[in-house]
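Write out this protein's structure.
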Amino acid sequence: AKSLPLQFLSKHRDNLFQIEAMLFGQAGLLEKEFSDNYPKQLKQEYQVLKSKFSLQPIDTHTWKFMRLRPKNFPTIRIAQFAMLIHQSEHLFTKILEEKTIEGFYRLFKIDVSDYWANHFIFEKASKNQIKTLGKNSINNILINTVVPFLFVYGEQKGEELYKERAVEILEAIQGEQNFITKEWESIGVKNKSAFQSQALIELKNNYCDKKLCLNCAIGNQLMRN
């Protein structure tokens, strides 16, 4: 994000090819020589945009492909992000207007450009596969981006509706499964929704890790037992 300000992407939002050129170029994934026409063209376009915006790509070694499922490869995630930006016109308004979790899933059901329909990496063709964002990926976007945005927007505008909607989204998403929530579940604490998951993560980070058990209702209860 620091190497490629959103304002640069916004200027070229209508052109998916240019967005991909900037994103893949800044990711350091266009540094080598290619034989496929598409990455060749991306590289050429990136050189123009790199000069225009004085861009400097990050180190390619930042990206890890080992032990990842192909659909989770950085190249696919970047292609999906490019499409999200390309389709993001009025996204701010759409997020504010959306009222159901199903609607949010539809809003973020992002596909990829034609090249990536049968590629997971540059210059290695594969069978055509649908590469839309999965439910877990969309949930991560909702939990970590949409919910905080709605809550802060509601707070700043004095609109309780948006704060309530943020909570409703968390309550509609299944509980997250990670090492923190699993630890809570092992001692009998329920984790049925993302609302509960986020609360448990917050408790772990701000009470358990800081050994503030006596300031925590759950900690007090456990210590009494």
